[in-house]
TrEMBL record:
Domain EAL span(s) in chain numbering: 24-272
Protein name: Bifunctional diguanylate cyclase/phosphodiesterase
Covered residues, full protein: 446 to 721 of 721
Length: 276
């Protein structure tokens, strides 16, 4: 077993749905303390333009090192935060740190929202306060929502998204390709972009028809007027396939893992394609 305390260490992966009730409760207690101490870290994963391979955006991803558990899987602590009523505060802290970092860069910054979040009437207020405090222009902030958000209340989702976009921020549908994706419904939503789920990549590579399948998804985006970002790009082959299929942005380990803000700052100084 890993030593308790000390520095950052991996104690193995705790799949979100496997942690028992007691564990989840303990995690909620520790997470609440971490939020009070502003101890949630944010790291940034580059997103590149598919053609130039220059970094045009970054996704902010929450990271948490618990004093007793080491690094905790984001899927686990995010789901605990949702359940324990801590997600609004977590998002606020992530958004604030992300906006402050991004204000010094000349790229867009993407922040993930949980399904319930944008429905909170106070969300727009805290968003505006964070933009004002950081000096980040609204059009450089992209909110990533999931199908869970849309499913919550289909009739009002459209209105909420319109209000957010009226503030000038962009909205992307994350993990596209995993869920319900009713096309008639998607067509009515005010979105700016689709992010193709990385599970999809696992499926397509190696299959004969993978190229046409990827192209079909991009065409679907086209017909909705939405550019498509591919995430989870791990190899040059995948990058080439997705670029040829028409994805306009690529994100994944091939272009860079999530890193601390200072690290991305250094990389942005020589904003070029990764050496291969
Ligand atoms: P997501 O928004 O779809 O983020 C992409 C996830 O894919 C990240 O996992 C990222 O580290 C991982 N990833 C990126 N490139 C690759 C790749 O090439 N290969 C593989 N295997 N994985 C890659 P992470 O950081 O563990 O986050 C998991 C999920 O947790 C995120 O999925 C997002 O739904 C959620 N999450 C993370 N931070 C936040 C946050 O601040 N707020 C909310 N509400 N959710 C968050
Ligand atoms: Mg995301
Ligand atoms: Mg995603
Ligand atoms: Mg996700």
């Amino acid at each position: 077993a890993a030593k308790a305390g000390g520095k950052r260490q991996w104690r193995g992966y705790e799949p979100a749905m496997d942690a028992g009730r007691d564990t989840r409760h303990q995690i909620a207690v520790e997470l609440r303390a971490a939020l009070q101490q502003d101890a949630i870290d944010v790291c940034f994963q580059p997103i590149v333009d598919a053609r130039s391979e220059h970094i045009v955006a970054a996704e902010a991803l929450a990271r948490w090192t618990s004093p007793t558990r080491g690094m905790v899987d984001p899927a686990l602590f995010i789901s605990v935060a949702e359940e324990a009523g801590l997600i609004s505060e977590l998002t606020r802290q992530v958004m604030r740190k992300a906006a402050r970092a991004a204000a010094k860069w000349d790229i867009s910054i993407a922040v993930n929202l949980s399904a319930a979040e944008a429905w909170d009437a106070r969300f727009a207020d805290s968003l505006l306060a964070i933009l004002a405090d950081s000096g980040l222009p609204a059009n450089r902030l992209e909110l990533e929502i999931t199908e869970g958000f849309l499913l919550r209340d289909a009739d009002n989702a459209r209105e909420i998204l319109s209000e957010l976009r009226a503030l000038g921020v962009k909205v992307a549908l994350d993990d596209f390709g995993t869920g319900f994706a009713s096309l008639t419904y998607l067509r009515k939503l005010p979105l700016d972009r689709l992010k193709l789920t990385r599970e999809f990549l696992g499926e397509i590579v190696g299959e004969d028809n993978s190229r046409s399948l990827a192209a079909a998804i991009v065409q679907l985006g086209d017909s909705l007027g939405l550019p498509v970002t591919a995430e989870g790009v791990e190899t040059a082959e995948q990058a080439a396939l997705l670029r040829d299929a028409g994805c306009t942005r690529l994100q994944g380990w091939y272009y860079g893992k999530p890193v601390a803000a200072a690290h991305l700052t250094r990389r942005l100084k020589q904003n070029v394609a990764p050496a291969v």
